[in-house]
Write a structure and sequence with these properties.
6-stranded mixed β-sheet, 3-stranded antiparallel β-sheet, 5 helices
Length: 199
């Protein structure tokens, strides 16, 4: 198993155990989460590898929503998009743009989350419709409008900030004040905000 494959497996595990309990309400009243990789028949494999669907949120008897997820262990406020691979294999940027232009199936939502894997806590997360995200990205050019960032695995990514997306797409954020999207109101019970000086 390559490092990239291990990273994807860890990311999926963190999504299930750390992220999902906090954001499941975004996708229905009581949705059940299914990981595409756990059901490896031909069609589900195509959903994963071709359409980029990592999970399904299923509301029994009501409907289902497909989700593309990326979970990282930093503390950022961006969607991180894989732009290119040294191998030349297609990335999610290339696949999603092709799907968008050809009316092929896209994951309904894209979720980007940041966790502390040691404390097993969610730092922040955001979600938006995948078609809205890539429609917005299609209006610019990676490398010109968004910085390209190389990785140790000879892959190139570009970050799209939640701040710029907030006015462009229907963006849901777990902690908007932590993301800097709203000003956190004063809390008179928060002693860390007190001056602490002597009278």
């Amino acid at each position: 198993m390559s490092k990239a494959e291990r990273d994807m497996k860890v990311s999926a595990g963190n999504f299930e155990t750390i992220v999902w309990p906090h954001i499941s309400g975004w996708f229905g009243d009581d949705p059940v989460l299914y990981k595409t990789e756990d059901h490896p028949d031909t069609l589900r494999t195509e959903f994963d590898r071709v359409s980029g669907v990592d999970f399904w949120a299923v509301e029994s008897g009501a409907g289902m929503i497909s989700i593309a997820s990326r979970v990282q262990t930093y503390d950022k406020t961006t969607f991180t998009i894989r732009y290119s691979r040294d191998s030349g294999n297609d990335t999610e940027y290339q696949k999603r743009m092709r799907q968008l232009r050809s009316d092929y199936e896209l994951p309904t939502y894209t979720v980007q989350a940041y966790v502390d894997p040691v404390l097993e806590v969610l730092r922040n997360a955001a979600a938006c419709r995948t078609d809205e995200l890539y429609e917005y990205i299609s209006s610019g050019e990676p490398g010109s409008d968004w910085n390209l960032i190389g990785s140790d695995e000879n892959e190139v990514f570009f970050p799209v900030s939640w701040d710029e997306l907030d006015t462009q797409v229907d963006l849901t954020v777990y902690d908007r004040s932590r993301a800097g999207l709203v000003t956190k109101p004063d809390d008179p019970t928060d002693i860390t905000a007190w001056g602490g000086g002597d009278d």
